[in-house]
Design a protein that fits this description.
Strand content: 35-45%
Strand order of the largest sheet: 1-4-3-2
Largest sheet: 4 strands, mixed
Shape: globular
Number of helices: 2
Number of domains: 1
Radius of gyration: 14 Å
Helix content: 10-25%
Low-confidence stretches: none
Mean pLDDT: 96
């Protein structure tokens, strides 16, 4: 089994799109049928989408923890130091490789792993 789609929702899709671009995502802006406009990034069969909150949602779900491999972890961490990303745990060597934990503006924890 392989994950091929992940959708997150936020009150401010434009801001979150910019934030995720800072760690290497490239997004297109589109909509499916009558659905809401949203941002989508596709890479190696994996689609990552940023949607606005639904009408019934008051805030984004920040309990979701994400993990992404990046080409160069040191460069990625250096590039986000003066941005809206919060660096929770700097670069560490773990049993899974070189990793760091960051947090997006909605409070989601993201584990970055060196490719």
């Amino acid at each position: 089994m392989k994950i091929n789609l992940l959708v997150i929702r936020t009150q401010n899709p434009d801001h979150l799109k910019t934030q995720y671009e800072e760690i290497g995502f490239e997004f297109d802006y589109h909509q499916h049928g009558n659905g809401p406009f949203h941002y989508a990034s596709e890479n190696n069969g994996f689609v990552f989408e940023i949607y606005p909150l639904t009408k019934s949602m008051r805030e984004a779900d920040n309990s979701l923890r994400l993990g992404f491999e990046v080409e160069n972890l040191e460069t990625t961490i250096d590039n986000i130091k003066n941005t809206n990303w919060k660096i929770l745990n700097g670069i560490n060597i773990t049993e899974w490789g070189k990793t760091a934990i960051i947090q997006d503006s909605d409070g989601r924890k993201i584990e970055l792993k060196n490719k």
